[in-house]
Design brief:
Layout: E1 9-13, H1 17-21, E2 26-34, H2 39-50, E3 55-61, E4 64-70, H3 76-86, E5 89-91
Antiparallel strand pairs: 1-2, 2-4, 2-5, 3-4
Bound molecules: copper (II) ion (CU).
Copper (II) ion binds near residues 37, 38, 40 and 41.
Length: about 90
């Protein structure tokens, strides 16, 4: 990958054509997550994040996750809460 994510930051806006039609502004964020150690953790984080509305989980690895979400519907607090509920913590 050309742009290696520095982690914990919102990187870019990227709308799919259908999202553009709906007037949504989707943000892509690379999250840094503390406390993940194995593939079970990856599953837990995936499921925790998937509960948020207007968000899709693009990728989850041990220690990180990439999500795309509607910034009008999902805040950084929502992301932190979802990760905490799964048993981990978001590194700011
Ligand atoms: Cu684990």
């Amino acid at each position: 990958m050309k742009n290696k994510p520095s982690g914990g930051r919102i990187l870019e806006y990227r709308n799919s054509p259908s999202e553009q039609k709906q007037g949504k502004i989707m943000k892509t964020a690379d999250l840094k997550i503390e406390g993940m150690t194995c593939s079970h953790c990856v599953m837990s984080v995936k499921q925790g994040l998937a509960k948020l509305p207007e968000l899709r989980v693009e990728d989850v690895q041990i220690g990180s996750a990439r999500v795309v979400f509607d910034e009008a519907k999902v805040s950084e607090t929502d992301l932190a809460k979802a990760i905490e509920e799964a048993g981990y913590s978001l590194i700011p």
